[in-house]
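User: Assemble these into one structure.

Assistant: Restating your components, then the assembled model:
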Amino acid sequence: METIKTTDLTKKYGNLTAVNGLNLSVNKGEIFGLLGPNGAGKTTTLMMLSSLLKPTSGSAVINGFDVLTQPSSVRESIGMVFQDPSSDSVLTAYDNLKLHALLYNVPLGSINAKIDKVLALVDLEKRKHDIVKTFSGGMRRRMEIARGLLHEPQIFFLDEPTLGLDPQTRDHIWTYIKSLAVRTNMTVVLTTHYMEEAQKLCDRIAIIDHGSIVALGSPQELIRELGGDIVLLKGTLNLDKLGKLPFVKEIKNVDGAYRLSVENAGRNLQELLCIAGDIDLVEVHSPDLNDVFLHYTGKQMREEEGDTVEYVRDMSRASSNK
Amino acid sequence: MNIKKNLKAIYALWYRDFKVFLREKSRVASALFLPLFWYFIFGGGVGTISTVPGNYKHFIFPGFLAMTVIFSSLFNGAYIVWDKKIDFLKEVLIAPPSRSTIFVGKMVGGMTDALLQAYILLFIGIFLGVPFTAKSIVLSMILLFMLAAGLVSMGLIIGSFMESLEGFGIISSFVIYPLFLLSGALYPLDKLAGWMKVLTHIDPATYAVDGLRHIILGASSMPLAYDVSAVLGFDVVLILVGTWAFGKLKL
């Protein structure tokens, strides 16, 4: 059963088309990933799905409600964790959660019990009465995830849930999300930069570039579709000859190295290397989601770069939020 | 059911504003001391040359009640730009309550903050010897409540259009001080030159100050009913514009 359906969903800012005729359908209980380079339109899409942003054209139906005509019902059905911290840092975790519970009409008698429950879920029950300002970035994110779950949404949106977090916390959060989705049959839609995250967590992913879906399927499917193996070559190469080899399906220049998509590299590697030219470096691997991403967007998932920029911005926000 | 839902949302926003208020003791202290400085130093100084009949300090006291409300209400309302900056507003706007409910919640929060300060000052006034009666205390509190409703709305409107905190200085110079200085808080309205007389009559705070003077000191330039209607009219317009502005509010 589909719980999210968009029809030609489009958002334009002047001449810039951020989201271009998106047709998406997500099933109940699914963990769905939106992958794409920076500025691909992932966040804009989430904003429209959550009724915070009006589409320029097209429509979206969330849990049976239209985002344009029934925004209030849409918002009752969803939980959201934003990319940037959106809690009040001068209040305690408890106050932030209580505020949320009241805004979402959680019955007064059950607010405290629910707060305890979600805080336990993210291991923050001991920090319940601490001011959020004293939390680390990871703790604050966990608190906001707990907050998003407090009103037991049908659909949970997470915008880059683990951005800027250390690997351990990231792993922790993945486990939470996965077990929650399984246990409660909640639908999860997340955007991410991390291929590993998408591969481990998502039932299906959509790769978005320039506001459109360029690939859609389960991570395994997408990898299988790509086929063959990846041969990475560095050096002064004889590209003409390489291109004529029948088992070389694609050659891409990525950051000074050549990525060749090769059928059955095990058998064909020797022939390939013989005519390749001066080689400084050879690397062979089976394709993963990174290669899928590269294939469809022509861009590397530059996690490190993205991280630093986001991290610096998070920090400057965090420090100005005092 | 719907009413209960909306009341809970309003309570939520009030709860948050009140918690923030309790944590910002320095701001509250300065908001209380500023009018007292004016009262003692300005009132004491200018009182020696004033031709206002009666005690000049008592004459300007209603003005300082209004001043406290003007400063706190406008700053409080405009503070919503801070919510925008820290992305807290996203959390509020993505919640189910309608924009008008959110507006009312923010209004109640801002008014609580401003009125607590004004009411504390009012009680300090009793000890300073301002001739209050039980009736004039209650009526003053009601009129200050009315003034705060309009001014918090005005602040929220300004804040909802502001993009950054840098605009705060402009509010202070071009909204708060003109509202205060033109309100007749410091001088009688009767003998003013033509252009200034016009400006004072555009300033909604003028009617509140005049009304408070009528209630507390029994002397005013305009009839009390006229003052009260002017303040209420101003409230209605600003609340309507504020609800509209919140509907337009973008992140």
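The mean pLDDT of chain A is 85.
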